[in-house]
């Protein structure tokens, strides 16, 4: 027994995560009111699929989840910034090498600009590898069909059969999510995130696009900073060559997220993603979703819309982070550009006044949705930017750290959001309106937002 203690710790470190028993209360959500319940035709089939998913290897590992929580703790302390972004709804059809690469590339390009603007490390979190279920405001769509609820539940195709929820889709979601994550890890490991390469893309954006030219001087400053690093001989530093990106999705299809939960070192980890958030429509304090995420060790987010009271925000913090662990909880304000300056300050005051530690993140997309004159669900770039600027203003006034942004974007040249330097107007929307759900920033609008935020951070 002389070597017992190292042997034990080695065994613990390498112990495979196991299926949880009920000590963690991971089934409690099933007894609670659940908003946005998917209308599964046959609950027994859902259970059978979940049993299968309980045995598969998870998408992410517990140590990575802990790592992200620690990175978000640094954000919480004001020494880093978080950039989260990706499709509103991923689809199986668009889960291609090209789409994944373009989205990731856009996120990385924004991150470089923000790193420079904020002079802070940027924690990168993609809406990817599982963002396959959607809350809906209406149960039926404009054509009178059951609403599309994300590829994990039913199909976007406009027929009654395609809209019928199919539990087998949970398995396809798992397969797609794991292959997406596999590809992203491999490409990031192979240098996709190399600082020089990402900055070269940004240089192209500045040189070739009308949107980019306005940012020439900031891009040149970044050039000079990179030249300086190179001249100092720091080119072989791993931090410049590789970067990590975490994956995230809304914790909505709880059957899926629970089935991918495993126990490691005495804690339950939801290993379908590093980061999970609860949406504006499902954040009821005594509802199923808040209960489920309260029981897992992941860093989690909650969307808070314009009707959130300071008391509710504080209750969410106490419910989800009773030990006040920094990095555990992110409050994602999505107030709309017209409301953020009025609604957010008392919330920030109440939460910080009670000594509660949260990451304050801004989602400038979901409070700014409108319908275009020709009937498209859209958002205007100016309002998106204005909400971010309002959020910065609120945090500057309260002396709190504006921890980061959460956006819907794609690396494809879509025409879904209005405005930006390309001046996309209502009549342009039909040209490339491809989203399965909400309108996303295209790469030019995304980069432009990053440059404008970087400028605002330096003021
Ligand atoms: C989303 O992030 O796609 C979403 C539905 O957001 P919210 O819950 O804030 O409306
Ligand atoms: Mn959305």
UniProtKB/TrEMBL annotation:
It comes from the Bacteria. Its cofactor is Mn(2+); Co(2+); Cd(2+). Mn(2+) binds at residues 88, 366, 408, 438. Belongs to the class-II DAHP synthase family. Residues 1-19 have a biased composition (Low complexity). It catalyses: D-erythrose 4-phosphate + phosphoenolpyruvate + H2O = 7-phospho-2-dehydro-3-deoxy-D-arabino-heptonate + phosphate. Pathway: Metabolic intermediate biosynthesis; chorismate biosynthesis; chorismate from D-erythrose 4-phosphate and phosphoenolpyruvate: step 1/7. GO terms for molecular function: 3-deoxy-7-phosphoheptulonate synthase activity. The keyword Plastid does not apply. This is Phospho-2-dehydro-3-deoxyheptonate aldolase. Residues 1-26 are annotated as: Disordered. One of its GO terms (biological process) is chorismate biosynthetic process. Phosphoenolpyruvate binds at residues 127, 280-281, 303, 334. It is an enzyme of class 2 (transferase). The keyword Amino-acid biosynthesis applies. Gene3D superfamilies: Aldolase class I. Binds 1 divalent cation per subunit. The enzyme is active with manganese, cobalt or cadmium ions. Its EC number is 2.5.1.54. It holds the Pfam family DAHP_synth_2. Keywords: Amino-acid biosynthesis, Aromatic amino acid biosynthesis, Cadmium, Cobalt, Manganese, Transferase.
């Amino acid at each position: 027994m002389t070597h017992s203690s190292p042997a034990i710790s080695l065994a613990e470190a390498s112990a495979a995560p196991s299926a949880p028993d009920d000590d963690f209360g991971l089934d409690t959500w099933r007894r609670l009111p659940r908003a946005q319940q998917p209308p599964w035709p046959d609950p027994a089939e859902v259970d059978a699929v979940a049993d299968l998913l309980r045995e598969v290897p998870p998408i992410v590992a517990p140590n990575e989840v802990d790592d992200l929580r620690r990175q978000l703790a640094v954000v919480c302390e004001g020494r880093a910034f978080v950039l989260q972004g990706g499709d509103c709804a991923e689809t199986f059809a668009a889960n291609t090498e090209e789409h994944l690469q373009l989205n990731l590339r856009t996120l990385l390009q924004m991150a470089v600009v923000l790193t420079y603007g904020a002079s802070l490390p940027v924690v990168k979190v993609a809406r990817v590898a599982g963002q396959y279920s959607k809350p809906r405001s209406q149960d039926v769509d404009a054509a009178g069909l059951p609403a599309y609820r994300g590829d994990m539940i039913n199909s976007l195709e406009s027929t009654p059969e395609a809209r019928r929820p199919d539990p087998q889709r949970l398995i396809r979601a798992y397969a797609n999510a794991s292959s997406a994550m596999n590809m992203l890890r491999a490409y990031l490991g192979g240098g996709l995130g190399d600082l020089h390469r990402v900055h070269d893309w940004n240089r192209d954006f500045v040189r070739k696009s009308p949107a980019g030219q306005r940012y020439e001087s900031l891009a040149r400053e970044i050039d000079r900073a990179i030249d300086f690093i190179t001249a100092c001989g720091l080119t072989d530093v791993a931090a410049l060559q590789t970067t990590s990106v975490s994956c995230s999705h809304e914790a909505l299809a709880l059957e899926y997220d629970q089935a991918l939960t495993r126990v490691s070192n005495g804690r339950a980890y939801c290993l379908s993603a590093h980061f999970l958030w609860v949406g504006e429509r499902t954040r009821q304090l005594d509802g199923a979703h808040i209960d489920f995420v309260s029981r897992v060790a992941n860093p989690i987010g909650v969307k808070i819309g314009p009707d959130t009271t300071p008391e509710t925000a504080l209750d969410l913090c106490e419910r989800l982070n009773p030990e006040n662990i920094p990095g555990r909880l992110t409050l994602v304000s999505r107030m709309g550009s017209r409301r953020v300056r009025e609604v957010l300050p008392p919330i920030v005051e109440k939460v910080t006044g009670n000594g509660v530690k949260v990451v304050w993140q801004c989602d400038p997309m979901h409070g700014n949705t409108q319908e275009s004159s020709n009937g498209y669900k859209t958002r205007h770039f100016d309002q998106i930017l204005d909400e971010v600027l309002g959020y910065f203003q609120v945090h500057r006034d309260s002396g709190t750290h504006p921890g980061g942004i959460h956006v819907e974007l794609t690396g494809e040249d879509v025409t879904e959001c209005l405005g930006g330097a390309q001046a996309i107007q209502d009549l342009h929307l039909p040209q490339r309106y491809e989203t399965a759900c909400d309108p996303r920033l295209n790469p030019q609008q995304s980069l432009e937002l990053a440059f404008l935020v970087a400028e605002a951070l330096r003021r």
